């Protein structure tokens, strides 16, 4: 009898320990994840019962909560809504949340774990509950310049402070107004959401960090040039044969340079000239010589394949592992299965600008409690060192030549050395191009790294995307 009781007692004790452990995990360690879960209706209604914290740019609210005379007490209001829609996202009653609103919902609604004491203090003092304020790294002049310069084009602009990883501008077009989605009338919210969802221009996509991703075209040549020079196997003066057309091995595909003809009109061509004139054939040969494994190693070091949070989740850019030499050659000038976000391309330029060190990108400058006590200060963090400082210096000079005397000439700024690279990516026979520019300035002390992409473009990256980038750079440098 005692033996059976002992077994039952042990079983009950183990069940109690399991229950205690699971309850502890749920109430302590998983609370933020549960609060952030879009299916948690209780958290949604709780977030409406408090005054939601503002989202700030340079001290000015771009999203704030204002009192209203209805059961929800406060309504979200977006200032300069289209300008910042790719950043704020939206906060709705029944269609979820996106952008900073969604990623930092627990802080903005005052339900984050590290705001527990503030909540207790509000209860004790009888104060109305409030969420934390979120200050962003966005430079309002750069954001406005990017938005205006992109104009009616469909595409995106991302600008980064190379030294810190702080995102200075993030624009995605077409943009949208999140205010109708903040309505407290369910039917109005659903109607507005369906209209945006059904729009052929897909304004709800944040093209800066996600969506369908893009072929990078010739801006990917920066990764291949990095791999070649940093490996020690090549220098900018290394030469390759310079035909006007090239048939890929074991393939019927014939490639050519963007402008047609040879690259500079000489029997051989250096890596430096091929990058300056943005020639495809020399880079295809260079890619085949390096091999997919080496290129993949450097692409990964630049962030390809990684999961970034800014704090919104970023769709990973991809460089495929190819054993087919023809595919390796195509991918070496940004075609085949290469796919990128504009953020990834900006990060590549930022790493080159920052002496080879890649800083983790972020939009968050600071999170403050309602009493202005810092909850989370700016967290500068290095992601890695994809290239050496020496390689960085070499690539910087090559990119300066691209702008001063090469295929990126429309990014020139008087009195400033701009380092840059253009790209004109193909999307299939008869389809419009994807037009790119990426670069940084000033070359000797970079304050901004930028990437611009324009969908369905006519012309070249230098004619369309480079002038857009120029205006964003000038806004930061106050030119």
What does this structure look like?
- Helices cover 38% and strands 18% of the residues.
- With 479 residues, it is an alpha+beta fold.
- The strands form 6 sheets. It has a 6-stranded mixed β-sheet, with no helix packed on it. It has a 5-stranded antiparallel β-sheet with strand order 6-5-19-18-17. A two-stranded antiparallel sheet has the order 7-10.
- Helix 10 packs across helix 12 and helix 10 (221-230) crosses helix 13.
- The longest helix has 28 residues, at 2-29.
- The radius of gyration is 26 Å and the shape is globular.
- The relative contact order is 0.13.
Strand fraction band? 15-25%
Q: Between the first and last Cα atoms, what is the distance in angstroms? A: 90 Å
Q: What's the quaternary structure here?
A: single chain
Structure classification:
alpha+beta
According to DSSP, the number of beta strands is 19
Largest sheet: 6 strands, mixed
Helix content: 25-40%
The best one-word shape is: globular
Describe this structure in a few short sentences:
The chain is α+β, with helices and mostly antiparallel strands and 479 residues long.
């Amino acid at each position: 009898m005692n033996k059976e009781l002992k077994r039952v007692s042990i079983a009950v004790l183990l069940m109690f320990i399991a229950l205690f452990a699971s309850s502890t995990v749920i109430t302590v360690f998983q609370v933020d994840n549960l609060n952030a879960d879009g299916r948690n209706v209780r958290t949604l209604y709780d977030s409406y019962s408090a005054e939601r914290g503002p989202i700030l740019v340079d001290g000015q609210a771009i999203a704030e909560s204002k009192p209203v005379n209805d059961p929800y007490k406060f309504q979200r209001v977006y200032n300069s809504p289209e300008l910042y829609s790719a950043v704020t996202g939206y906060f709705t009653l029944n269609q979820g949340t996106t952008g900073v609103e969604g990623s930092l919902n627990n802080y903005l609604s005052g339900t984050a774990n590290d705001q527990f004491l503030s909540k207790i203090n509000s209860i004790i003092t009888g104060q109305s509950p409030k969420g934390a304020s979120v200050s962003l790294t966005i430079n309002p002049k750069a954001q406005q310049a990017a938005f205006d310069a992109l104009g009616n084009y469909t595409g995106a602009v991302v600008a980064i402070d190379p030294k810190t990883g702080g995102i200075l501008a993030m624009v995605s077009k077409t943009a949208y107004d999140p205010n109708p989605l903040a309505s407290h009338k369910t039917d109005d919210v659903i109607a507005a959401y369906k209209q945006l969802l059904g729009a052929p221009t897909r304004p709800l996509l944040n093209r800066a960090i996600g969506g369908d991703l893009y072929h990078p075209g010739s801006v990917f040549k920066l990764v291949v040039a990095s791999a070649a020079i940093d490996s020690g196997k090549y220098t900018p003066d290394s030469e390759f044969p310079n035909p006007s057309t090239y048939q890929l091995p074991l393939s019927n595909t014939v490639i050519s340079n963007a402008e047609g003809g040879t690259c500079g009109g000489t029997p051989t061509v250096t890596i430096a000239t091929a990058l300056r004139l943005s020639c495809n054939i020399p880079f295809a040969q260079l890619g085949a010589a390096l091999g997919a494994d080496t290129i993949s190693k450097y692409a990964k070091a630049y962030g390809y394949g990684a999961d970034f949070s800014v704090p919104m989740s970023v769709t990973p850019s991809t460089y495929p592992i190819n054993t087919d030499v023809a595919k390796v050659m195509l991918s070496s000038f940004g075609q085949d299965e290469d796919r990128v976000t504009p953020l990834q391309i900006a990060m590549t330029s930022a790493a080159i600008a920052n002496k080879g060190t890649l800083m983790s990108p972020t939009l968050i400058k600071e999170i403050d409690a309602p009493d202005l006590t810092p909850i989370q200060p700016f967290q500068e963090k290095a992601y890695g060192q994809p290239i050496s400082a020496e390689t960085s210096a070499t690539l910087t000079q090559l990119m300066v030549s691209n702008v001063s005397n090469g295929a990126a000439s429309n990014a020139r700024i008087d009195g400033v050395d701009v380092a840059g690279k253009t790209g004109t990516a193909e999307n299939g026979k008869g389809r419009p191009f994807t037009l790119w520019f990426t670069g940084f300035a000033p070359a000797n002390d970079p304050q901004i790294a930028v990437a611009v992409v324009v969908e369905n473009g006519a012309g070249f990256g230098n004619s369309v995307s480079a002038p857009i980038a120029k205006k964003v750079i000038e806004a930061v440098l106050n030119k």
